[in-house]
Amino acid sequence: MIRAVLIDLSGTLHIENQAIPGAVEALKKLLQTSLTIKFVTNTTKESQNFLYNRLTALGFPVQKEQIFSSLAAARALIVNKKLKPMLLLSPEALEDFEGLACPKNENPNAVVIGLAPNEFHYERLNDAFKCLLNGAELIGIHAGLEYSAQCTATIVGKPQNMFFYSALDNIRPEEAIMIGDDVTDDVEGAMKAGIKGYLVQTGKYQPGDEHKICTTPDAVVPSFVEAVEKILLEIKQ
């Protein structure tokens, strides 16, 4: 029984500021079902609000709380562990971490790294390095400090199992489908977590991608439109 669908954004629903043909109408059909829908992305430079505004401007009828990014996963980890982090994030991403940064008069016990070129200068990286040497936890996707500081990073985002489980919340992996254009991070990552993987032949897809992973995707379809059609047929059975 299918209870949830996880949907990648860039390359699956849209490419830059252009919706994949038919994707808006297909999503509307999917949203008319009782399925839980989540939009999952590895972006480390765009806040939930930014992503929501982009999707709605393209015509996708999404709710802000349906968007789950690697930033959201990092935020949840910080809150659950009651961490006081140093944030090496882009100005756009900081919106998702309001009120969570370590106060200036205290020592951070975590360093969160995203895609933030403006933060990657000697002084800032040196401060982060010192924090890690003092035992701070490293959290991120772009974990370039991991080797230098000889520490193990907690990686958030696809293809980590915990990212998919967090997006699903209380829904079991075997009751979910992941739709994406990245055969490794989206499809293989989901399948390793026990979720069905549907690979779309749009975005970053290259011919033969489905043969580059050990386990064949549960479905390979031309686009998000056909993925939705297949799901709608499945839940009718």
Layout of helices and strands, plus pairs?
Elements: E1 4-8, E2 14-15, E3 18-19, H1 23-31, E4 36-41, H2 48-57, E5 67-69, H3 70-81, E6 85-88, E7 110-113, H4 122-133, E8 137-140, H5 145-148, E9 154-155, H6 161-168, E10 176-180, H7 183-192, E11 196-200, E12 219-221, H8 224-236
Parallel strand pairs: 1-4, 1-10, 4-5, 6-7, 7-8, 8-9, 10-11, 11-12
Antiparallel strand pairs: 2-3
Summarize the structure.
The chain is an alpha/beta fold. It has helices spanning 23-31, 48-57, 70-81, 122-133, 145-148, 161-168, 183-192, 224-236; strands at 4-8, 14-15, 18-19, 36-41, 67-69, 85-88, 110-113, 137-140, 154-155, 176-180, 196-200, 219-221.
Q: How does the major sheet shape up?
A: 6 strands, parallel
What overall geometry do the principal axes of the alpha carbons give? elongated
Structural class designation: alpha/beta
Which whole number gives the mean pLDDT?
A: 93
Radius of gyration: 19 Å
Q: Which strand order does the major sheet show?
A: 5-4-1-10-11-12
Q: Care to describe what's here?
A:
The chain has 237 residues and is of the alpha/beta class. The strands form 3 sheets. Strands 5-4-1-10-11-12 form a 6-stranded parallel β-sheet. A 4-stranded parallel β-sheet has the order 6-7-8-9, with helices on one face. The chain is elongated. The model has no long low-confidence stretch (mean pLDDT 93).
Characteristic terms for this protein:
alpha/beta; 12 strands; elongated
